[in-house]
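User: tokens in, sequence out, please.
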């Protein structure tokens, strides 16, 4: 492996050597950006746009939850530990999906050392509140400026060498977290116009917040959607109440985006790509070779090592074997299929990175 000479094209791989030597070595940010664009890479990146906060990393860095949810310096420190300690080739904040609903006035619970906060009250369950609530100012509202500051810290420290990824929730996920899943499912059939009003509002909230994170230095935005999965909505309702609003949001952000929908998204991958997402983060239940066939390089594929059976409960060798299979099937960015469990062993996290260095696509 040789270093890229000064003046050489950012993603130039083998032309310098006329095919007589190994590809030019890229740094993690270059590799990540190239993979997102289907440009040449020296190997598959081992980045993680899903949440990376684990107890071993908290112990190693001295930055733990709940403080790392609330303080920008500790948030950045824990995010950086995923790279410095675990070897992951990216940094990502925050570690939960509740920043936006807290900013509009939802009370949170679950501030523990090994868990993520969740909504205690659903502010928008009251239909009257939908017309009263304002779009929060990302510069001042609750933890929005905390996350933006953490992004800024990370970008200043490692932004030239590592991809800095910031997570926000999709419009449908925002609706669920601010109104409750039960109410949203009832809305679909009884009050669809009310739900659409919430989703329109969500696009405004998420676009303002996402733009603030991009301005702070986020190089990619990760869209969390644990609710509009195929097993819950099916393709028709997904196309009506999830996809178009995510598409609007991505267009407004105007930056590289990675869309994640939990569960077996095989039958909605086509609609996920239609949102314009640069990449799709797919759960372990999706077969990567099937995803490649469906997507036809419209969106890059991120994933999809099983975060529970392999990363949390398995051995490093089992993780490496599954990661090897993901690479050989054609994943563009090697990552877990969903967020790291807080109790994921450090050696299992490292095994993903090890596999990215060892194995190549068929």
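Assistant: Sequence out:
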């Amino acid at each position: 492996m040789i270093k890229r000479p000064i003046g050489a094209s950012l993603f130039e791989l083998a032309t310098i050597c006329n095919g007589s030597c190994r590809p030019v070595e890229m740094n993690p940010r270059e590799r990540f950006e190239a993979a997102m664009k289907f440009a040449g890479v020296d190997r598959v990146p081992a980045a993680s746009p899903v949440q990376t906060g684990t107890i071993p990393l908290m112990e190693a860095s001295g930055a733990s939850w709940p403080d790392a949810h609330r303080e920008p310096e500790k948030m950045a420190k824990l995010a950086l530990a995923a790279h410095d300690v675990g070897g992951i080739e990216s940094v990502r904040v925050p570690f939960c999906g509740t920043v936006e609903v807290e900013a509009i006035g939802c009370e949170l619970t679950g501030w523990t050392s090994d868990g993520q906060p969740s909504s205690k009250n659903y502010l928008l369950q009251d239909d009257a509140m939908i017309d009263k609530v304002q779009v929060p100012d990302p510069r001042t509202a609750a933890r929005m400026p905390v996350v933006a500051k953490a992004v800024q810290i990370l970008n200043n420290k490692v932004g030239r060498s590592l991809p800095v990824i910031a997570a926000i929730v999709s419009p449908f996920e925002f609706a669920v977290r601010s109104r409750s899943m039960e109410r949203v499912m009832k809305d679909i059939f009884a009050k669809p116009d009310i739900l659409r009003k919430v989703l329109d509002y969500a696009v405004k909230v998420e676009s303002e917040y996402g733009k603030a994170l991009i301005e702070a230095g986020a190089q990619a935005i990760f869209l969390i959607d644990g609710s509009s999965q195929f097993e819950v909505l099916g393709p028709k309702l997904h196309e009506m109440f999830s996809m178009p609003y995510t598409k609007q949001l991505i267009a407004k952000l105007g930056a590289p985006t990675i869309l994640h929908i939990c569960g077996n998204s095989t039958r909605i991958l086509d609609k996920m790509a239609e949102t314009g997402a640069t990449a799709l983060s797919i759960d372990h239940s999706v077969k990567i070779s099937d995803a490649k066939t469906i997507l036809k390089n419209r969106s890059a594929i991120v994933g999809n090592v099983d975060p529970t059976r392999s990363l949390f409960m398995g051995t490093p060798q089992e993780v490496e074997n599954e990661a090897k299979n993901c690479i050989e099937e054609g994943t563009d960015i090697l990552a877990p299929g969903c967020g790291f469990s807080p109790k994921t062993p450090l050696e299992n996290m490292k095994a993903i990175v090890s596999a990215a260095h060892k194995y190549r696509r068929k």
